[in-house]
Amino acid sequence: MKTYRTYLFDFDYTLADSSKGIVMCYRNVLERHHHTGISDEAIKRTIGKTLVESFSLLSGITDADTLEAYRKEYVKEADKYMTANTRLFPETSHVLTTLKARGAKLGIISTKYRYRIMELLGHALPESTVDLIVGGEDVQTPKPSPEGVFIALEKLQTEKTDVLYVGDSTVDAETARAAGIDFAGVLHGTTTREELAAYPHTGILNDLSELL
């Protein structure tokens, strides 16, 4: 695979498996409001979308005030349970530190809140490994809007042709396409190789080590 000057990563199901914590937090909120019979797999399929979008898909609710209330409840649940139930994938630390040692700039673009990602990474990586995190609170329009990518390009002073965006979902693929940058899919999540391959891509990776 081509070597890039800058690598931008999604977080959930790309760098880390936080599905256990995510399912727990969604289920606590949903069942509190009598939304039952929703499978773990259905919840996992929403990873990468905003909390409001996910709650709407899972519950069928469209009322904005109700969805915002659910979002706030989820954040409180995540403050309790997310960090303890999230693990970086086995190769993540090695891949990121190796790319950094080679002189690459590294960024994360996620719908997850920046402070949460910083808390999670602080337990696993040297502080200077990741140059920039653009979280859900940093943008007006979430992925697949390219806004977060454009923020990263400006702050990292990087041209589009020098960037690879790595993600696990079709939302990530759509984000890269909208931003006009190269995309590589990784098969850590619930999205299939065929689903990712339907979008422009430079590769579909079994895991992140293939970046090296």
Automatic annotation (TrEMBL):
Listed SUPFAM superfamilies: HAD-like
Enzyme class: hydrolase
Reactions catalysed, as given in the entry: 2-phosphoglycolate + H2O = glycolate + phosphate
GO cellular component: cytosol
EC number(s) from the headed UniProt entry: 3.1.3.18
Keywords from the named record: Hydrolase
GO molecular function terms listed in the Swiss-Prot or TrEMBL record: phosphoglycolate phosphatase activity
The protein's annotated pathway: Organic acid metabolism; glycolate biosynthesis; glycolate from 2-phosphoglycolate: step 1/1
InterPro entries (UniProt xref): HAD-like_hydrolase_sf (IPR050155), HAD-like_sf (IPR036412), HAD-SF_hydro_IA (IPR006439), HAD_2 (IPR041492), HAD_sf (IPR023214), PGP-like_dom2 (IPR023198)
Any GO BP: DNA repair
PANTHER family xref list: PHOSPHOGLYCOLATE PHOSPHATASE
Family: Belongs to the HAD-like hydrolase superfamily. CbbY/CbbZ/Gph/YieH family.
Protein name (record): phosphoglycolate phosphatase
Source organism of this protein record: Phocaeicola salanitronis (strain DSM 18170 / JCM 13657 / CCUG 60908 / BL78)
Taxonomic placement: Bacteria, Pseudomonadati, Bacteroidota, Bacteroidia, Bacteroidales
